[in-house]
Design a protein that fits this description.
The structure holds two protein chains of two kinds.
Chain A: H1 2-5, H2 10-45, H3 61-71, H4 82-98, H5 122-131, H6 134-143, H7 147-178, H8 183-191, H9 202-215, H10 227-230, H11 240-265, H12 280-302, H13 308-338
Helix pairs in contact in A: 2-11, 2-12, 3-11, 4-6, 4-11, 6-7, 7-9, 7-13, 9-11, 9-13, 11-12
Chain B: H1 2-21, H2 25-45, H3 49-74, H4 88-111, H5 128-136, H6 140-169
Helix pairs in contact in B: 1-2, 2-3
Classes of the chains: A mainly alpha, B mainly alpha.
Chain lengths: 339, 170
């Protein structure tokens, strides 16, 4: 990371800038088709057909949605805190994209990870990006200065800081097994013996899945924007592109937590034929992300929304003790094996 | 490197001024978030990776979220809650003197070599691995003592909150 930040070499800076632009373009395209896939998959779950009119199988629907959002009027409530109101959507999407600076999406033929940067404390960087991810929603909801967004923002803040603890403990269990905080190192430790951490750390895997759903405000944890109670939650007052930006941030967050779950629990780009053709690891990585994203859709189509007090009680009284217990057992086993 | 330091230092000073002069507490919190982010980048330029990440996760990510949570609950409405006259100008003189005295102490403190040679920090102390090993071997007493102090605070909070709840019920 120091090499990236304190870079005296202008050429390397330009290379990193181009890599970042390519990564943003790829993630934004992935967002557009994740959104379309969600509408299609939810439609199939409910015996409907979903979007079909824009292009073959509705494949141009994301473009049509984008044009529609851009052409809508951008409203700002008169009582809103203007600067923070306008800045909050950008903050939400910035923190969602930040983690992609360090996520290794595969391995090169020479064994190096394919990533913009490969810092030592990579997983801590990801946790830091996720920790400040709450500000987009909470500041946006507060700056709207009306009751539904404020209630949504307060719910979201409480939910995210409650579930972040259990998520951190689940991640630490994996770090104990891998013995490194470097994301590429964690993936390499699993692909060395083709032994994915989902097997020994299945409890941590489940905890990570639940907390990731809560962190991304997805159903059944979508209380910050519970339509039946809060109109549209924190983004009630937002319209046009600013609303669209919150939408982008939510879906990118979903892709990001899926990518991190892939690195931590499913061996990153590990899979058949990777030893012969290393670049195929990118394909396995993308397929594993698709699996997680499908799980998100499936859970949304299946489970009803939790009640708010149940959500808090579940986070603090069930998830956190289980995560602590799992961490202690993992630490004991790792210590015994190493000794 | 120098340019990066200059940029971070400028952001740090400007955001710190913003925290103090903002009339609305939420704007102060936003200024503090920017301040902590710039501070984390400064830590990175000093090769203190672990400190930089923890600065963001704990301070920007947890403590300031709590600040924002409380302030947003208390101050619905865009009017500044502080309606009395601005007292900052008349306090400026004392503040500048206090700041200069503090700066003098810091300058005096860092120019002297206080630590014995044996207790010198490891050269790569900033990395996660070395920092963790040092924390749980060389500095384990300070680490455990800090943990104990925090535990006392947690028990105290639980006692006070619990007592009020039973009082309300009876």
């Amino acid at each position: 990371m120091n090499a990236l930040l304190a870079n005296p070499n202008a050429k390397e800076t330009i290379v990193v800038a181009i890599e970042s632009l390519v990564m943003i373009f790829v993630v934004m395209t992935a967002f557009a088709y994740t959104m379309l896939a969600e509408r299609k998959v939810l439609a199939w779950f409910q015996m409907r057909v979903g979007p079909t009119w824009c292009g073959p199988w509705g494949l141009m629907q994301p473009a049509a949605d984008a044009v529609k959002l851009v052409l809508k009027e951008d409203l700002t409530p008169v009582t809103a805190d203007k600067v923070i109101y306008k800045f909050a959507p950008a903050l939400a999407v910035l923190t969602a994209l930040l983690a992609w600076a360090v996520i290794p999406i595969g391995v090169l033929p020479n064994g190096d990870p394919i990533a913009i940067a490969n810092p030592g404390p990579g997983i801590l960087f990801v946790l830091a990006a996720s920790a400040i991810g709450v500000y987009g929603i909470s500041l946006g909801g507060w700056a709207s200065q009306s009751k539904w967004p404020l209630l949504g923002a307060i719910r979201s803040t409480a939910q995210m800081i409650s579930y972040e603890l259990s998520m951190g403990l689940a991640v630490v269990s994996v770090l104990l097994l891998a013995g490194t905080t470097n994301l590429a190192g964690i993936a390499a430790a699993q692909s060395a013996h083709h032994f994915w951490y989902v097997i020994p750390e299945f409890i941590a895997f489940i905890i990570y899945g639940i907390t990731a759903t809560a962190e991304t405000n997805r159903a059944p944890f979508d209380l910050p924007e519970a339509e039946t109670e809060l109109v549209a939650g924190f983004h009630t007052e937002y319209s046009s592109l600013r609303f669209g930006t919150f939408f982008v941030a939510e879906y990118i967050n979903m892709i990001t937590v899926s990518a991190i779950a892939t690195v931590l629990f499913l061996g990153g780009g590990d899979g058949p034929f990777v030893a012969q053709f290393p670049l195929i690891s990118v394909l396995w990585f993308v397929l594993k992300i698709c699996f997680f994203i499908f799980m998100f859709f499936w859970v949304r189509a299946t489970l009803p929304r939790l009640r708010y007090d149940r959500l808090m009680a579940f986070g603090w009284k069930i998830l956190l003790p289980v995560a602590v217990g799992n961490l202690i057992i993992t630490a004991a086993v790792v210590a015994l094996v190493r000794a | 490197m120098t340019a990066l330091f200059a940029a971070c230092a400028a952001v740090l000073v400007l955001s710190a001024i913003g925290v103090v002069v903002s009339r609305h507490p939420v704007h102060s919190v936003v200024g503090l978030i920017v301040n902590f982010a710039a501070l984390a980048v400064l830590f990175l330029t000093l090769s203190a990776e672990f400190l930089a990440m923890i600065q963001i996760i704990i301070y920007a990510g947890a403590i300031l979220v709590l600040f924002l949570f409380v302030i947003a609950l208390l101050t619905v409405g865009s009017d500044p809650i502080e309606r009395t006259a601005n007292k900052l100008p008349e306090q400026a003189g004392q503040a500048v003197i206090a700041g200069l005295v503090a700066l003098g102490f810091i300058a005096w403190g860092i120019q002297a070599d206080w630590t014995p040679a044996a207790a010198k920090a490891a050269p790569d102390l900033g990395t996660v691995g070395t920092f963790g090993v040092q924390l749980l071997t060389t500095h384990v007493f300070a680490f455990e003592a800090t943990g104990f102090v925090l535990l006392v605070a947690i028990i105290g909070v639980v006692m006070m909150a619990g007592r009020r709840e039973t009082g309300a019920r009876s």
